[in-house]
Amino acid sequence: MGKLMFITIAIAVLSGLIGERIVNLRKRCLASRELVQNHLPNCVLLKNLENGSEDITILGNGLGFISSGLKYPGLANSGLPGKIFSLDMQDPRMKPVELRMPRNFDLESFNPHGISVYTDPSDDTIYLFVVNHPHHNSQIELFRFVEEDFSLVHLKTITHDLLGSVNDIVATGVDTFYATNDHYYTHEILKGVVEPLLAQPWSNVVYYSPQDVKVVSDGYYMANGINISPDKSYIYVADVMDHNVHVLERKEDNTLVPVKAVALGSLCDNIEVDPESGDLWLGCHPNGWKLLMFDPKSPAGSEVIRVQNIHTDKPVVTQEYADNGEVIIGSTVAAPYRGKVVIGTIFHKALCCDMK
Q1: Residue 190 pLDDT > 90, yes or no?
Q2: Is 133 considered catalytic here?
């Protein structure tokens, strides 16, 4: 009788703990949040991107790159291999073009996530860094873009023990970058179930160069998007589960020193930086619980947050776009370019709108 009672009490305690953790997770996911529509003018859905546009970055000349087809554990996906597209923002047709991949590259397992572009100032060569998750692993693919025939040349694959669960990346040279690890564990069950329930600040940022790989910032609940200021002096990191963006100062040895965190009020994913104003544009999940529990009848919404004057005492945080899932589902990125903004999603469509 005593043993049975002990087991009963233990089960009750465990159930209570799990219940409390689920309640906490729902709170972090903003599960009770209702979104009010806030659409931008002259919005057009982009062609060829029905299977997602998780990350988008646009160069100063209007040339954009898009990663499509992400298969992320626990989230909906098409099941098809990933692709990389280019987009000419100066072409009024606004039609993404699929880039031709090298024959010696494993396309069947290609699972692109965050991307970053580095233009070599010595010869204007464009290098594309792509976070790739073949078979749910994490590695970085380095490509050279060939504009003449819209193709990519694969230069190398980068792996390291410190790059175990990479989400996003920002290039700082032809083979150097900062990257975010969104989880501590690499096992699917541990990172997909146990870690979210524990909700501990175990996520980090890693600096990589061929000579030096090190953790340069930690203490995040889920480090996600990462980008760099126009003057290259600061790194910005979005902590999606803590609803804020961190500002970190770069040092000569590439370590990062925390400066501040700015509250966003949403689960923000990737970060794009306007090269002229320095404004941050973030694609966000207004209700992360809906994204996790995906129901086509009640889809996850999309939100775009803009942060102006982030280095001042009073940064300005504004909601630039909001949709309840009727137009686009699960926004992850908002890339600005000369009065327009391109909004991408995990597994749904992509939208280009005029700014207000």
Answers
A1: no
A2: no
Its pTM surpasses 0.90:
yes
CA distance 295 to 324: 13
d(C-alpha 196, C-alpha 178), whole Å: 24
Say which DSSP state 148 is in: G
The model's confidence at residue 10, banded by pLDDT at 50, 70 and 90, is: low
Q: What's the pLDDT tens digit per position in 266-298?
A: 999 999 999 999 999 999 999 999 999 989 899
Q: Which residues of 38-69 are buried (b: 16+ CB within 10 A; e: fewer)?
A: eebeebeebebbebbbbbbbbeeeebbbbbbb
The DSSP 8-state label assigned to residue 122 in this structure reads T
Cβ atoms of residues 250 and 256 within 8 Å = yes
Q: Which of these, 307, 335, 306, 304, lies nearest to 63 by C-alpha position?
A: 335
The catalytic residue among 39, 113, 285, 311 is 113
The two tokens of residue 71 are 């298969």
Which of 169, 180, 192, 199 lies closest to 71, judged by CA?
192
Which whole-number Å values give the CA distances from 301 to 51, 117, 129, 283, 330, in the listed order?
16, 28, 29, 11, 6
H/E stretch holding 8 reads: helix 2-28
